[in-house]
Amino acid sequence: MMARRDIQTATADLRIQMTTSDLRRRLEELQRGDTSVEDLLAYLRDFPFEDLGFARIDHHRPLRTGFPEVVLGRGKSPDQVARIVRSLKDRGNPVLVTKTDETSFESVVKITPNAVFNLLAKAIVVPADAPLPSLSGLTVVTAGTADLPVAEEAALTATLMGSPPERINDVGVAGLHRLLASLDRLIEARVVVVVAGMEAALASVVAGLISAPVIAVPTSVGYGSSFEGLSALLGMLNSCAPGVATVNIDNGFGAGYLAAQINRLVSVHG
After folding, report:
1. Model's pTM, two decimal places?
2. pLDDT for 102-123, tens place per residue?
3. 252: closest CA among 154, 143, 173?
4. Coil vs helix vs strand at 130
């Protein structure tokens, strides 16, 4: 088992890579005379958090957790989303808005021209000035094509955190031979995200075939007694295979985030 001190060291390394680049750049600008003390103080004034009235933007989160605050677009107006993105975008980290729509994107892109809309994941991304070096070892697996939007959210999140995943799609248990055809690729993974709806048996099957941890994502895909993903959630929580951790229904972001953390820790400590 990895020692707590090793985990803290690896997490600290991730924080340094993701959060000091912007601070370093601004300090170097001050040293060269390209910016003023007043400008630097204005930047640091809102560093713990910035109060927008309707939201308090946690600019200190990357130093604590290694990744900036992520915006849940659902329930926010397009103007609110745009103002939050504007607050986050100039601090050297990627900006990610999940569960959003093209109307909000239209508001965002007016003030953040380099923003990109991922239609499949329904997410807005503003890339980092200096993306993290890419690590291999993370794989995202889907049971069916209908699970792709949630899987795309997981993959997008992991990519922004420096772990662009390999993708294995449409390998649900109704055609188990499709999964077995990709077994060699699964065995090589350090961590696997399994996205499935219906009865969600795929997570147990994958976990029973490989030694890597499996992060299970139940989706609201199905009909009848699937109860908008509740059946999949309960199936994954009751997995008979060890090594399965389950996130909430349609929570691709949470799965991608956790998988990227695991992948980086494993890559650092082998």
Report:
1. 0.80
2. 999 999 999 999 999 999 999 9
3. 154
4. coil
